[in-house]
């Protein structure tokens, strides 16, 4: 395993570096990144940014907004949050195996006295409260898994920067975003800093995975800055151009995620379509959307176009074709 030391707090650079390392075909070893973003909202690749953020607060408080490659929901990062990224070769043991990638973090949490465990589709819980959410992205034969760790985040900011998804909250019987999550620092009997916590993770992986510490080269840093400028700092990537929707349908499928479809139909044909949501597919929605453009808006046609393989790749292994069709066709 290679541990790439990244001390940047710039979210646009950090996500660019993560993408470059994921897509570098010359690297065959397992990779670990530990990184932090300052005052940032990170949006899932399939989400509608405008609907996820409190734009007035974001503008007034100069909150960075950036879209990541993976699925899942929007999260707020400050310097009390620690992000981890594992990049492995994709095989039957690693693909969609969230428990595998979260276990090294759970091991460290347990060693410092916390009752941590993997739960649900992509969370780490401590004493029943969420301290980590996770998502994945596939590229060729590589799988990138990343997650958050709420170490000492300012929880008072969460409901101000993000718009709670009422479908998600009501389905779980929860009154506020804050009720679901907790920091780990207050739970520690022996207090440590976030830097000390990072060191514990690295040390543990040095022992179990023989992790080698590597600093990114000047060339790699320059590449990441270039990609950040060309992609991650752009409005097109982070907000995108939304079509004028004339039909919307948003459905929460319990235990799987929210699917939010916006489409425009003209003379019985789909002229524009965008699919948003916090589902955990690894392909992104564009290929499926492109398939549906200019197709008749009827169940039989959509069913013949969309395959089960499409569904698993775009929405995640737990979704069925019928569930997605029921959202597309009301």
Automatic annotation (TrEMBL):
Q: Which GO terms describe its biological process?
A: protein lipoylation
Enzyme class name: ligase
Q: According to its UniProt record, in which pathway does this protein act?
A: Protein modification; protein lipoylation via exogenous pathway; protein N(6)-(lipoyl)lysine from lipoate: step 2/2; Protein modification; protein lipoylation via exogenous pathway; protein N(6)-(lipoyl)lysine from lipoate: step 1/2
Please write the reaction equations for the catalytic activity of this protein.
Answer: L-lysyl-[lipoyl-carrier protein] + (R)-lipoate + ATP = N(6)-[(R)-lipoyl]-L-lysyl-[lipoyl-carrier protein] + AMP + diphosphate + H(+)
Known EC number:
6.3.1.20
- SUPFAM superfamilies per UniProt: Class II aaRS and biotin synthetases, SufE/NifU
Q: Which GO terms describe its cellular component?
A: cytoplasm
The UniProt GO MF terms for this protein read: ATP binding; lipoate-protein ligase activity; lipoyltransferase activity
DNA damage is among the record's keywords: no
Q: Which UniProt keywords apply?
A: ATP-binding, Ligase, Nucleotide-binding
InterPro entries assigned to the protein according to its UniProt record, in alphabetical order: aa-tRNA-synth_II/BPL/LPL, BPL_LPL_catalytic, Lipoate_protein_ligase_C, LipoylTrfase_LipoateP_Ligase
In terms of Gene3D superfamilies, this protein maps to: Bira Bifunctional Protein, Domain 2 (3.30.930.10), CO dehydrogenase flavoprotein, C-terminal domain (3.30.390.50)
Q: Where is the BPL/LPL catalytic domain?
A: 26-213
Claim: ATP-binding is one of the keywords in the record: yes
Kindly provide the name given to this protein in its UniProt entry: lipoate--protein ligase
């Amino acid at each position: 395993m290679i541990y790439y030391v990244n001390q940047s707090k710039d979210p646009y650079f950090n996500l660019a570096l993560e993408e470059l390392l994921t897509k570098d075909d010359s690297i065959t070893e397992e990779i670990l990144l530990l990184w932090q973003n300052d005052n940032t909202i990170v949006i899932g690749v399939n989400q509608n940014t405008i609907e996820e953020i409190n734009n007035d607060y974001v503008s007034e408080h100069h909150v960075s907004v950036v879209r990541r490659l993976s699925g899942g929901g929007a999260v707020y990062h400050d310097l009390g949050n620690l992000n981890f990224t594992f990049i492995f070769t994709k095989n039957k043991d690693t693909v969609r195996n969230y428990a595998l990638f979260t276990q090294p973090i759970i091991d460290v949490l347990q060693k410092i006295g916390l009752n941590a465990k993997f739960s649900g589709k992509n969370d780490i819980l401590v004493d029943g409260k969420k301290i980590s959410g996770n998502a994945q992205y596939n590229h060729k034969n590589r799988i990138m898994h990343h997650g958050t760790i709420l170490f000492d985040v300012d929880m008072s900011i969460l409901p101000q920067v993000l718009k709670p998804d009422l479908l998600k909250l009501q389905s779980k019987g929860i009154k506020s975003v804050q009720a679901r999550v907790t920091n780990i620092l207050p739970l520690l009997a022996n207090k440590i800093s976030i830097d000390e916590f990072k060191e514990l993770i690295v040390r543990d992986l040095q022992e179990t995975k023989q992790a080698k510490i590597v600093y990114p080269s000047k060339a790699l840093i320059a590449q990441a800055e270039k990609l950040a400028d060309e992609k991650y700092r752009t409005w097109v990537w982070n907000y995108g151009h939304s079509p004028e929707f004339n039909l919307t349908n948003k459905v929460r499928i319990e235990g799987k995620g929210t699917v939010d479809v916006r489409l425009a139909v003209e003379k019985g044909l789909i002229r524009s379509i965008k699919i948003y949501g916090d589902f955990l597919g690894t392909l992104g929605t564009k290929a499926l959307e492109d398939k549906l453009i200019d197709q008749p808006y009827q169940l039989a046609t959509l069913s013949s176009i969309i395959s089960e393989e499409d569904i698993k790749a775009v929405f995640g292994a737990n979704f069925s074709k019928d569930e997605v069709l029921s959202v597309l066709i009301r």
